[in-house]
Design goal:
One of its GO terms (molecular function) is L-valine transmembrane transporter activity. Keywords: ATP-binding, Nucleotide-binding, Transport. The chain has helices at residues 42-50, 72-78, 95-105, 112-125, 141-154, 171-186, 198-204, 222-225, 229-237; strands at 2-13, 16-27, 31-35, 57-62, 65-66, 80-82, 159-163, 190-194, 207-212, 215-221. By secondary structure, it is of the alpha/beta class. The protein has a domain at 1-79 and 158-170 and 190-242: Rossmann fold, CATH 3.40.50. The strands form 2 sheets. The chain has a 6-stranded mixed beta sheet with strand order 6-7-8-3-9-10, with helices on both faces. It has a 4-stranded antiparallel beta sheet with strand order 2-1-4-5, with helices on one face. It binds adenosine-5'-triphosphate. The site of adenosine-5'-triphosphate (ATP) has 11 residues, from β2 and α1.
Length: 242
């Protein structure tokens, strides 16, 4: 069954068409990569799905519910959560407090003890449960990333959007990060991940969508896409037309 449907979606910034009539679907339970050279429109597309930007044309639906035209908080309630390229945590609060906020404002609006339980479960999922009462500002970079992921999970999403969540990790951390994303996918969450680390894309995503200059240039099996001449030309041209 289709979970996310992106249908003919366009976003312009002045004279620049950052996302140009893009369409693709993601099935429930799928883990899909979103690739493309720098500036090709990947983050803009993620922002359109999460409601952080509004589309100039087209329609995005989650399990049949229209997302386009809704605010980010409304979209979170429908079941979409995300991480950001630059980690957004609340450094002066504890890990639990950080994760309670989305538990309250996420898909199921938990309160009190129930919100605390969901927050704790999300911290456990990312391996941070033992540090629940530490201040978020004291965490190392990878643990800040884990915390941001826990914030997304505490919203109990059907669809998780990861924007280069693995970027900046050392090789050991990368292995741990890949295993963590796989465990989330195994738990049934549908994932769309923007990622530049091909080793991780190969390990995690059976299928990828590839963008170049705002357009979708491939939507196919990862092994096929990575040898597709259009895709290779797009990366070699770094943003020029394939
Ligand atoms: N808020 C904005 N205002 C104006 N232009 C923008 C804005 N956000 C993005 N752009 C432009 O839209 C295009 C697509 O940017 P986007 O960040 O979506 O690319 P990307 O594929 O995510 O790149 P990267 O891999 O470097 O993160 C770029 O030319 C970028 O400069």
């Amino acid at each position: 069954m289709t979970l996310l449907s992106i249908d003919n979606v366009t976003k312009r910034f002045g004279g620049l068409t950052a996302v140009d009539a893009v369409s693709f679907d993601i099935a429930e339970g799928e883990i899909m990569g979103l690739l493309g050279p720098n500036g090709s429109g990947k983050t803009t597309l993620v922002n359109l799905v999460s409601g952080d930007l509004s589309a100039d044309g087209g329609r995005i639906t989650l399990a049949g519910t229209t997302l386009t035209g809704r605010r980010p908080d409304q979209i979170a309630r429908v079941g979409v959560a995300r991480t950001f390229q630059l980690v957004r945590i609340l450094p002066s609060l504890t890990l639990t407090e950080n994760v309670m906020v989305p538990a309250v404002f996420g898909a199921k609006s938990h309160w009190g003890a129930a919100a605390h339980e969901v927050a704790q479960a999300a911290l456990e999922q990312v391996g941070l449960a033992r540090r629940a009462s530490s201040n978020a500002g004291e965490l190392t970079y990878i643990d800040q990333k884990r915390l941001e992921l826990a914030r997304a999970l505490a919203a109990e999403p059907k669809l998780l959007l990861l924007d280069e969540w693995l970027a900046g990790l050392n090789p050991t951390e990368l292995g741990e990060g890949v295993a963590l994303i796989r465990s989330l996918a195994d738990s049934g969450i549908t994932i769309l991940m923007v990622e530049h680390i091909m080793e991780a894309v190969r390990a995690l995503c059976p299928r990828v969508a590839v963008m170049n200059s705002g357009r979708l240039i491939a939507d196919e099996a990862t092994e096929v896409a990575l040898t597709d001449p259009h895709v290779i030309a797009a990366y070699l041209g770094e943003g020029e037309d394939a």
